[in-house]
Amino acid sequence: MKLLIRWVIVAFSLFVAAWLVPGIRVSGNAWIVYAVMAIILGLINAIIRPILKFLSCGLIIITLGLFVLVINGLTLWLASAIAVNWFHVGFHVDGFWSAFFGALIVSIVSVILSALVKKEEISKH
């Protein structure tokens, strides 16, 4: 159940990013696009992102963690490229800055919604 909730949160966060960032476009059946992108982004965050963070550990320390924002942008950009080229899903990110700001929005919305869901779970117990 937690995985399903997390998937919905990421899909909704991608919707908000596409709505707010001019360089992110969705074509085709939007909710299917967001659902597939959430799966792809989740897999990239689970497999590739830790490797990127390990390899750029020095930059992360020097920038006091701000380089993680660049990594987040790169992972969103990579997820978009995989979605478009391998799965023919229409989630287009025009460039690095669109990916950067899109990833920033996805992160903020995901943190807020995850905190709200967590708070709801705590209040039930």
Automatic annotation (TrEMBL):
Q: Which residues cross the membrane?
A: 7-25, 31-52, 59-84, 96-117
**Is Amino-acid biosynthesis a UniProt keyword of this protein?**
no
| Recorded superkingdom | Bacteria
Keywords from UniProt, A to Z, are: Membrane, Transmembrane, Transmembrane helix
Residue ranges of coiled coil: none
A Pfam family that the UniProt record links to this protein: Phage_holin_4_2
Q: Which InterPro entries match?
A: Phage_holin_4_2
Membrane as a keyword? yes
- What protein is this chain from? Phage holin family protein
Taxonomic source organism = candidate division TA06 bacterium DG_78
